[in-house]
Amino acid sequence: MRPFLIALPFVLLSNLTLAAEHSHDHDHDHHDEHGSLGAHEHGVAELDAALDGSTLELELRTPAMNLVGFEHAPSSDADRRKLADARAHLERPDALFGLPAGAGCTLADTDLESPLFEQDTAHDHDAEHGDHSDIHAAYRYDCTAPDALQALDLSGLFKTFPGTEKIQAQLIGPNGQRGVQLNKGNARASF
After folding, report:
1. Mean pLDDT throughout 32-47?
2. With contact defined as beta carbons under 8 Å apart, do 94 and 139 qualify?
3. Which end of the chain is less congested by CB atoms within 10 angstroms, N or C?
4. How far apart are the C-alpha atoms of 25 and 59, rounded to whole Å?
5. Domain boundaries in the chain?
6. Nearest Cα to Cα of residue 26 among 15, 16, 40
7. Region 81-87: what's the mean pLDDT?
8. Cα(175)–Cα(42) distance, rounded to whole angstroms?
């Protein structure tokens, strides 16, 4: 499992609580059933990033609405195309996270999860009851020159998925830990 990303929410819980107190966006009263610390909030995603030695781990959690424009089981060819396009973009994370070429980071593992990615959604609880669907994407990179990895540039993610208005990022790196809120005009998160 991903030990750094598992520990990250506990280490940075106070930052998330503080950010939630200052949030003025519309959110829902239920807790995210997939383990996210924050409420399901359209337009908002969460990113955890941990750089330990030569390993970079990233975990993106977002309402499906931010990536595909809906949260129900795909009911048309257009819905299925949007979902397939989003999945294809998530399977090519280098374009989303703007890792510097000098860091020599190679994607070692990808894990994409969502009830919407399941082929048979007829028995899916979220699809049947109209609940909110999230998409989780986790990545592990091996980097040959991790010192060159000073920041992530998420402008590609904002451009690819315009329904994502802000990202609450939590980072752990050689300089410690920090939380930052990113948006289209401020898309760079430093380690």
Report:
1. 66
2. no
3. N
4. 23
5. 3-23+37-190
6. 40
7. 96
8. 31
* Percent of the chain residues topping a pLDDT of 70: 72
Contact 188, 149 (CB under 8 A): no
Measured between alpha carbons, how far is 115 from 123 in angstroms, rounded to an integer? 10
CA-CA distance, 107 to 26, in Å (whole number)?
A: 35
Phi and psi at residue 79, in whole multiples of 5°?
-60, -45
Helices (H), the chain: 3-11, 13-21, 64-68, 77-90, 94-97, 125-129, 155-160
Kindly report the pTM of this predicted structure.
0.76
Question: Measured at the alpha carbon of residue 78, what is the angle toward residues 185 and 43, in degrees to the nearest 5?
Answer: 25
Token digits for 72? 């129900």
Closest to 168 (Cα-Cα) out of 21, 3, 6: 21
How confident is the model at residue 2, as a pLDDT? Answer: 52
Answer yes or no: are the C-beta atoms of 105 and 55 closer than 8 Å. Answer: no
Please give the structure tokens belonging to residue 52. 């330990």
Residue-level length of the chain: 191
- Please, which residues have CB within 8 angstroms of residue 171's CB and are 6 or more apart in sequence? 48, 49, 50, 51, 152, 177, 178, 179, 180, 189, 190, 191
